[in-house]
Automatic annotation (TrEMBL):
<protein>
    <submittedName>
        <fullName>Glutaredoxin-like domain protein</fullName>
    </submittedName>
</protein>
<comment type="similarity">
    <text>Belongs to the glutaredoxin family.</text>
</comment>
<dbReference type="InterPro" id="IPR036249">
    <property type="entry name" value="Thioredoxin-like_sf"/>
</dbReference>
<dbReference type="InterPro" id="IPR011903">
    <property type="entry name" value="TON_0319-like"/>
</dbReference>
<keyword id="KW-0249">Electron transport</keyword>
<feature type="domain" description="Thioredoxin-like fold">
    <location>
        <begin position="131"/>
        <end position="208"/>
    </location>
</feature>
<keyword id="KW-0813">Transport</keyword>
<dbReference type="InterPro" id="IPR012336">
    <property type="entry name" value="Thioredoxin-like_fold"/>
</dbReference>
<dbReference type="Pfam" id="PF13192">
    <property type="entry name" value="Thioredoxin_3"/>
</dbReference>
Amino acid sequence: MAILSDQNRGDVEEVFAEMTDEVTAYVFTDDCEYCEDTVELNEELAELSDLYTLEVHDLDSELAEQYDADRYGSGPVTILTDGELEGVQYFGIPSGQEFGAYVRDIVAVSTGETGLDDDIKAELAEIDEPVNIKVFVTLTCPHCPRAVETAHKFAMENDNITSEMVEAQEYMELSQEFGVQGVPQVNINDHDGEFTGAQPEPQFLEQVKNALN
């Protein structure tokens, strides 16, 4: 049975029409609960645009090691890339409330257009050290996609930034380690910075800069 409804497919095709360059989704799987669904979801998306390609790899593969996709010990892990970009990452199935953000991320990776203000882009360009942003979400949270998209936009603008959507219930041990009680919870370089809520892009960037200082 298909995951996407006819309405979903029509909506996605309309958004995918904005794509300009090829995007590949590397999906890393093991025997996790949502791995098959994540693969099937991306297979259906790949049917909707010749510019969107899916590659499925084992979580214990060399490619997974290259992208450090196995760092939390389980799948599914999805990395969207234009061939160079590595920092747009999903730990957990990008469905529910996150589905729209996932589709928009695909288009943004394809076009290279994040929609961020020029002053924010300029400040992001000045970051010259590694930054990891974790955005803990649940698939029923209506505010989480905004936080995920902002974090991923930052990663698209600066290769020093890796931004992860982490589905809190699929990665329960990690959520417990970071004391997740409400979502979206954003952690910057693990415990150097932390806040809860989908903050506007300028405030989100300030949180990142404060964590680096």
